[in-house]
């Protein structure tokens, strides 16, 4: 593909890069609902170049995520920061930020002074893995498209253009077919990153051969040393146990953290965290009521926080498709994202990389194959990274949170529970 043109009508809004527009009809408010374009990301990506998820945005902005970005940028800037290494198995690793402590002070009954402990420096490593998405096309199809101006996405492209024209977008601002297809691949790549950094990819067994293993947030919390709390006794009881853990460790150690909830788990919070007869919410809970504009309409919204930490709903957190139970992660400030591609502002980064013939993140390949295809042309977008945790004792996961909804409520919309249609999720 030819590099698409970089546009200047972009702005950062709520952690997402969006196309500037005063037209409510072009706004995309979340991944599942979308705007006028329906729930197909391949269509909606063009009115919001990067679909944002509140949970993923929070994960990208933890104190550790910001430190890891600074480490990466310092390394890129030529400051020779030694952040990469190899483990005993030859895996590429990230050398985590060192932690310093003192060994225990000691004393004997007849000693006049307490014997000082020794300064200890601990630096563990996190294995980094790659993420890759590709789009391949048979050369025969490419030749047909070249002489006819049509491709497999031409019908979608034509409908999309007519929608934009009908919404008042000038014809000279419409994307070309090549730009449409290229942005589609970029958009899916960004969503693949969001899904993978939250859920990870463990096994290659469905939806294609993307990666064999990736340490996402779910894999960090799968560590046997992570404290798990069952929600069988209800949300309030589970969070009371969370408070015990936070108090034992010291609440200040969780400042800057948050709770990340799946949609079904968030539904349980909405149903249980309600005012008592005196109008007061359960102990430890704060609920703020506000309004948000969705598809041009003002909607009432409640924001929940527990012991000062916000509870953030994510459309991307995996939900058990059989039980529909969800999970809630306590994400402390010692958890963060390390990404080779700067996911905090990927649109200009990827567009610029697309122009670089030697880019390590954007690859073009033409390969000879057997008859009848004979040769194919592939575009690939790649990234590498992991979710990093430097303090396992600060991790906590509430499991088996029932949505409180009857199973019949999900009939016909099962495909919206886990958005596998957007990018592969390997359980």
Task: Reconstruct the topology from this structure.
Layout: E1 10-13, E2 16-19, H1 41-44, H2 54-60, H3 63-76, E3 84-86, E4 92-95, E5 99-102, E6 119-122, E7 125-127, E8 129-138, H4 139-148, H5 154-166, H6 177-199, H7 217-220, E9 227-230, H8 235-249, E10 258-261, H9 263-272, E11 285-294, E12 297-306, E13 309-313, E14 326-331, E15 335-339, H10 346-355, E16 362-368, E17 375-389, E18 396-401
Parallel strand pairs: 9-18, 10-13
Antiparallel strand pairs: 1-2, 3-4, 4-7, 5-6, 8-17, 10-14, 11-12, 12-13, 14-18, 15-17, 16-17
Overall average pLDDT: 74
Beta-strand content bin: 25-35%
Q: Distance N terminus to C terminus?
A: 33 Å
Individual helix count: 10
In spatial order, strands of the major sheet run: 9-18-14-10-13-12-11
Give me the strand/helix succession.
EEHHHEEEEEEHHHHEHEHEEEEEHEEE
Query: Percent range for helical residues?
Result: 25-40%
Query: Number of folding domains?
Result: 1
Oligomer: single chain
- What profile does the largest beta sheet have? 7 strands, mixed
- Report the C-alpha radius of gyration, rounded: 24 Å
| Alpha-beta content class | alpha+beta
Secondary structure: number of strands: 18
Task: State the low-pLDDT regions, or none.
Answer: 1-51, 420-427
Shape: globular
């Amino acid at each position: 593909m030819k590099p698409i043109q970089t546009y200047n009508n972009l702005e950062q809004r709520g952690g997402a890069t969006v196309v500037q527009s005063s037209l409510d009809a072009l706004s995309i408010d979340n991944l599942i609902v979308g705007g006028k374009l329906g729930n197909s990301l391949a269509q909606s990506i063009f009115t919001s170049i990067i679909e944002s998820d509140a949970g993923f945005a929070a994960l990208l902005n933890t104190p550790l995520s910001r430190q890891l970005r600074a480490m990466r940028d310092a390394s890129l800037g030529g400051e020779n920061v030694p952040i990469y290494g190899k483990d005993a198995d030859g895996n590429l690793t990230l050398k985590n930020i060192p932690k310093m402590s003192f060994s225990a002070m000691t004393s004997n009954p007849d000693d006049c002074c307490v014997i000082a402990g020794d300064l200890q420096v601990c630096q563990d490593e996190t294995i980094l893995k790659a993420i890759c998405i590709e789009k391949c096309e048979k050369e025969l199809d490419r030749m047909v498209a070249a002489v006819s101006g049509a491709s497999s996405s031409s019908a979608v492209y034509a409908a999309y253009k007519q929608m934009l024209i009908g919404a008042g977008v000038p014809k000279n601002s419409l994307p070309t077919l090549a730009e449409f297809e290229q942005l589609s691949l970029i958009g899916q790549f960004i969503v693949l990153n969001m899904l993978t950094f939250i859920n990870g990819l463990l096994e290659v067994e469905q939806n294609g051969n993307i990666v064999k293993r990736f340490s996402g947030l779910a894999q960090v919390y799968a560590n046997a040393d992570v404290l798990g709390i069952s929600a069988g006794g209800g949300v309030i009881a589970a969070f009371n146990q969370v408070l015990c853990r936070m108090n034992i460790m010291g609440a200040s150690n969780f400042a800057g953290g948050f709770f990340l909830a799946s949609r079904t788990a968030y539904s349980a919070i909405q149903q249980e965290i309600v005012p008592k007869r005196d109008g007061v919410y359960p102990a430890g809970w704060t609920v703020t009521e506000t309004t948000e504009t969705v598809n041009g309409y003002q909607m009432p919204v409640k924001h929940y926080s527990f012991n000062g930490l916000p509870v953030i709903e994510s459309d991307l957190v995996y939900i058990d498709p059989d039980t529909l139970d969800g999970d809630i992660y306590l994400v402390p400030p010692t958890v963060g994202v390390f990404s080779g591609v700067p996911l905090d502002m990927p649109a200009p980064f990827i567009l610029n990389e697309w122009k670089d013939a030697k880019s390590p993140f954007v690859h073009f390949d033409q390969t000879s194959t057997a008859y009848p295809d004979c040769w194919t042309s592939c575009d690939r977008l790649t990234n590498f990274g992991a979710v990093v945790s430097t303090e396992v004792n600060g991790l906590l996961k509430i499991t088996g949170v029932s949505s409180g909804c009857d199973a019949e409520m999900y009939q016909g919309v099962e495909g919206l529970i886990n958005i596998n249609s957007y990018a592969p999720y390997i359980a």
